[in-house]
């Protein structure tokens, strides 16, 4: 709980403990007497059961009784007490798709989801009317304001950072309402059809260029390997003889109907020398 919330609660408690006045105390005594006279029939109407996940804020003649009640059973005086029950569980809601103009002048549709819970029941009742709808409207406004300062590439790549920024902004704004924003998520970013086609064409061109670069790199490496192999074979006659025998083995395996009569490589070299 922040210091601002503590000061606000202290102020409310101070006001709630103020004197009700003579007329107020007379009404309290009359209400309590009415409860005793109609007992046990009044027990069905004057006892409030608060669940584990709830807190009850009791107003007596317009003044808040000190602290939110719950969980358990509490006595409610007839005619002068008014009870407001607050659900303390985490609530989620969808942010309706918002049409947003980004920093680089691109129109996109963005939606999201917000998770929040009531942290202080008294502040959520006294400081804001309809806390749920107020939080929903504030989330829509915050989504437009935050994304309006981002470019399209940042929106597509930095969703977690944008969601965290929205969560901090919403949490600070709802602090006075006793609401804690726990999580914000960006669900979907919808782009215009023309922009989708342009991005797809750009991605395809990028992939084709990358494929050509990879193919050229492979040809270069293959040429270097062949050059090194030629140098090794030239320097070693035995390596040339082994390569010759390997070629004959490959031909014999692929062409089963072909009969091969291998000649010694030295004889071939002599024939080549005589011809020259």
TrEMBL record:
PROSITE patterns: BAND_7 (PS01270). GO terms for cellular component: plasma membrane. Residues 45-203 form the Band domain. The chain crosses the membrane at residues 20-45. InterPro entries: Band-7_stomatin-like (IPR043202), Band_7 (IPR001107), Band_7/SPFH_dom_sf (IPR036013), Band_7/stomatin-like_CS (IPR018080), Stomatin_HflK_fam (IPR001972). The keyword Transmembrane applies. Belongs to the band 7/mec-2 family. This is Erythrocyte band 7 integral membrane protein-like. It comes from Podarcis muralis. The gene is LOC114589467.
